[in-house]
Amino acid sequence: MAAPTVPGLAPGAPGQAPPVPAYRGRRPGQRLRRAGRRHALPVALLLPSLGLIGLMTGYPLGRLVATSFQDLGLPELIGHKVVWDGLANYRELFTSSDLGTSIVQTVLFVTACVGLTMAIGTGAALLLGRIGRLLRVTVSVCLLLAWSMPTSAASIVWTWLFQSEWGVANYMLSAVGLHFANHNWFGSTISAYAIITANIVWGAVPFVALTMYSAFTLVPRDLFEAAAVDGASPAVAFRRVTLPIVRPIFVLLAVLSVIWDANVFNQVWYLTQGNAQLLNVIPLGVWQYIEAFSSQRYGLGAAVAVVMVLLLVAVTGYYIRIMVRTGQLREGAKT
Fold first, then answer.
1. Helices 97-128 and 243-262: crossing angle, nearest 10°?
2. Which of 267, 103, 272 is nearest to 187 (CA)?
3. CA torsion angle 9 14 16 18 (round to 10)
4. Positive or negative CA dihedral for 189, 190, 191, 197?
5. Alpha carbon distance 151, 144 (integer Å)
6. Global pTM?
7. Of 117, 143, 160, 324, which is most buried with the most CB atoms under 10 A?
8. What is the tens place of the pLDDT at every residue in 18-71?
9. CA distance 39 to 19
10. Distance of CA 304 to the CA centre of its chain
11. Are 248 and 262 in contact (CB under 8 A)?
């Protein structure tokens, strides 16, 4: 009985390799044209929104940069006069001793706020996954109420809490035997920054906690079971299993926290009751306001704002680079 043959594959001569079918690949130009046609519709649908965002963002940034090259005070603003002074604002800015102090304070302040926010928010998210449903709903509602409170109203409440004569903090600490009667919490720069940091972290933790909890729910449970079978502790499982999966969301929250905390103004101004400069609490956002509105030197204030934008772009670009590299490594691992 003859052996069955596969249709379309004729047996070749002994000692000869079967013929290799010719690969008809597309030329580079054809591939580019096909990719262009495939992406044409999504790009066309995005163009209106991209144009609107570019207009709403590009125009104010352009006016800000233009103002930073002008000698713009209250008389010029009222009289609609444009007096260009070149790099005079930037020369004064970079020769000022307050610039280095403000940048150092901003970096330390943002680092403390972002670090505490991400640590406490991630811990709260882990706790939300380990409590019962009723308690989880109650805690989530409390977090949403704290997060939805306006920063100005929250700052006024915190000012009352830490008031030196009849504040709640001094009363409770004195009630437990500590000598905090008439204690001035804003008597030093470090103490003032500590209270401002606590206020900002209190308002930012709910967003991070709820977002990270949603990210944790996306991690497959079978990965934890496999890690437990391999003998991994909860800490090791979190570091090796959970964290790599939620890292893009974690980095995105860190970037948003850096941007928000670097531009903080309401909390600083309300808690110090307008005496931020006297207390030497001058992050870049507050210093910009002091130079622009208190001193009525809008050109110099615009120069400070341009420096803030450049610093934030540098930090944000670094984090975006990390996110892109993380995505590339993940795609490479899949392939």
1. 140
2. 272
3. 10
4. positive
5. 14
6. 0.77
7. 117
8. 555 544 555 656 666 666 677 778 888 888 888 888 888 888 889 999 999 998
9. 38
10. 21
11. no
